[in-house]
């Protein structure tokens, strides 16, 4: 059986005596023979000079002894600047974190009528009255209707990570708060390779949360910094708890192939690449604490003119002993039993050594896992993450504000990234699984979405009130809530009476309103909505800008170098909406405008890129053209739109460049089929692209051979996603960290798998009014559940 190996501190310190010499006048020191001056002349206070010297020696030892495991010369640390991989790396790590909500004590900044504004690190948290708040004094919940004054500090169920707690590191917090004060927990060090960071985070957070172990996890945020130190990832946990040791042993077994040999100096080696140490108890890091003690010993030696190695070592040993630490076991204090290290090592005895296992491609999907079971698992976890207040529920998620700062807040009510989208997924899932808890959560989400919908706010299909009332109406019919149906229908009629939106696009403008009102005309039903759709279509026809290449529309809400192409904001989405009107009314003006939009995009196609340009200005205001491959912008969305247009307008012979774009798109999807950690969202991720490719594989004019290749590629992607993520239940989302929403997060991923199971689930990416508005699938009397 393997056993823990305390650091050979005596031998390591003997090497330090030969590498480190403190000047007798306390103005500096030498490290590997290179002078390190602290000050050119004595400062007014000798004690201040001494402190500066000790701190400088401490930092030197920390960076070149503790972090590296052995004494090493100064290294070039200019790599501290962020590389261009930083954001993507941080994104992949945060996506892997299985902790959805962590209780964090925060100061209350201000209280408004609808929100409690707090702050966690560098992120403001806007907590509305449906979010979980606890009083830090007594731990009791603060009711949603609590009157001011609020406590000066609260515990908020908020984001489970921060980039500001420790410079250069990501800090993640477990579902249960790590309590007991300083010194009550341990530090478990992992010499992790950056390529395995996301897999490590997924395994560690899942294993610890599953056994309800309080913990914190910290790891380096910049991939290039991993070469500078051996404490690349640290788990803070109480190792005296047997379940904690079990969880971490299981984590080691799962990811040991991502570890390298070597551990930080003065820690206790448990297994190759894995070490432990106790928390110092004074708020400092373990490495800085021990290095400060060594530095103190060397400074005392210089003050007493001690130069012989044995004398210097004796001085260091006395400093350690004064602090209750033996040099032969520097990872813990003498009065604390460290028998847990023996049991921890025993649990790891049969674990393969680092790098003896090769990382696999996507594992096979277990035979018992079906598309419905994947959707159901995602849905039940989303439902479990909801915050309840009365008969309404809410979720929290991260987003980027206008200044590109991360803001963690309760979700909006819309379909795209808000509560309505989550409610829609859960309602469709509940209808097919008959799970009461999913139905109750879906209805609670829809009530919340309607309550938070602004009467005069955005009225768009995806990011406005129209999508909210549409999905609420469908959910109310499916799940038998007549009161919700009445509320949603009334709000839809008020929306139809408003001034139309300014923008022309599908996502949040006039084109989206056409599609939404056509759906409501069948879903409510009410012919007035169809009349409103026709009126909005007339506005689009009138505002079209004609040229030799066709017609297009300017968007006053988006800066661009030319009128946009694409589905969400460009001419494809507008053409689809106008074609829907032509099918509904037979009015040739709508057909002609749609055909003009198609011609505009045909002229913009780039054969070099096998794609259409994204004319939006970059965030820095530059005009560099981009060619993206997502539903929202680029070939996938345009291809999906062309498929719908071929159905609506009878366009049987696609132009040659469409076939080129389709094959280029298929290859792009194929590349991501076996890549772990890639954004899996609907809007701009693997799930959206794969669903579009699956739809494209049914396009007969593409030819049987290409159809088969496309179908096989799509199936491989769905199975790879299931193989990668069904075990950890951590799906990479489309924004910073975990996101429960429809277009950016887990609800959309679950929705995609639900559509694989049942084709009657209407597409969220290409909203067909006939499929969405069908009442035959949604008997209002089917369910009569009470509110939660």
Automatic annotation (TrEMBL):
Name listed for the protein in its UniProt record: Lanthionine synthetase C family protein
GO molecular function: metal ion binding
Entry keywords, A to Z: Metal-binding, Zinc
InterPro entries linked to this entry: HopA1, LANC-like
Entries under SMART domains matching the protein: LANC_like (SM01260)
A matching Pfam family: LANC_like
Any single GO BP term: peptide modification
Domain of life: Bacteria
Residues that bind Zn(2+): 632, 683-684
Organism: Solibacter usitatus (strain Ellin6076)
